[in-house]
Write a structure and sequence with these properties.
By secondary structure, the protein is an alpha/beta fold. The chain has twelve helices and twelve strands. Helix 1 (9-16) packs across helix 2 and helix 3 crosses helix 4 (85-93).
């Protein structure tokens, strides 16, 4: 099969994530690619530029092992819980490892990704002028509108070396479908030089063709496809499993102590060979609690045309 890009997570990260890369991990609370981030940690890729509009726990885990050189972002927090304690230690004290940061507004950051997806050098936005951000980030500049003469703020395009997307289902060629919150997946795929798709299910091409409007990423953008059930835990995948809120609360407690974070990484990331082993360690009561009952959407007819 010429278009068969299915491989293990270990192989996908080894082949398509390089030391020094700018990496983009898509997903806003929904479909956060934890399994891929854990494999990057296990392989100790180095000197990475981490891009994500809302860096959360995956960032803290990667910062804790010193593989991130720079963070480009717009908001950082433990979603629904509170601060990112590791990120705060890193930024304020350079502990356990120093990191450079580059900050934008939420709209400014997503405009950067959109510019990259459209192969434009920058995009104008209205969210920076009057704020303190331009003084902190020299990459935020101004231009004069050639039509009205108005001064506008602009942000540079974001073109990651590799984007990692977790999706609900994909075929072996990489045609990927998402439902629920679709967020930044499409723009990340079009902006990046390489794309790794991680999917809850690998389905036949006929399944994709039967529901074309849900195809967010077309196969020609995709470098690798990984079958990774429950690959977003403790995040969630709409229709497959719920968010593990107790885990996020536990991380808030645990991350107050860097030694406890290091112990967690040693046991739950470095201490397991892959996602299957991680899930085998997760207790059955938690997995049962996170299961969701089916709630099928309606169907439409695309018609048969001759």
């Amino acid at each position: 099969m010429a278009d068969d890009k299915l491989m293990t997570m270990r192989e996908a990260i080894a082949r398509f994530v390089n030391d020094g890369d700018t990496i983009y991990l898509a997903g806003l609370s929904h479909l956060v690619p934890f399994a891929a981030a854990h494999e990057i940690i296990r392989q100790r890729k180095r000197d990475l530029v981490f891009c994500r509009p809302t860096p959360d726990i995956v960032l803290e885990q990667m910062l804790s092992v010193g593989i991130i050189r720079k963070v480009e972002f717009c908001w950082a927090g433990n979603p629904g819980i509170g601060n990112l304690r590791v990120f705060r230690r890193v930024v304020e004290k350079g502990e356990p490892f120093p990191v450079e940061i580059e900050e934008y507004t939420m709209f400014g950051f997503t405009a950067r990704l959109l510019a990259g997806a459209m192969n434009l050098p920058f995009l104008p936005v209205r969210t920076n002028i009057g704020s303190d951000l331009p003084a902190k980030n020299p990459k935020i500049k101004t231009i004069q509108d050639p039509y009205s003469g108005e001064t506008l703020s602009v942000v540079p395009a974001l073109r990651p070396d590799v984007a990692i997307l977790h999706v609900q289902r994909a075929d072996r060629a990489g045609n990927a479908q998402i439902w629920g919150i679709t967020s930044d997946h499409r723009d990340a795929a079009f902006a990046a030089k390489r794309v790794i798709v991680c999917a809850e299910e690998i389905v036949d091409e006929a399944v994709i063709r039967a529901d074309p409007n849900r195809t967010i990423v077309p196969d020609f953008l995709v470098s690798a496809v990984v079958h990774e059930p429950m690959g977003c835990h403790p995040s969630y995948a709409q229709g497959y499993y719920d968010r593990d809120n107790a885990w996020y609360q536990e991380w808030d407690r645990l991350s107050a102590d860097q030694a406890a974070v290091d112990a967690y990484i040693a046991e739950w990331i470095d201490g397991v060979p892959d996602r299957a082993a991680y899930l085998a360690k997760l207790d059955e009561a938690t997995k049962a609690k996170l299961r969701v009952a089916p709630a099928w959407s309606g169907q439409v007819s695309y018609g048969v045309y001759r």
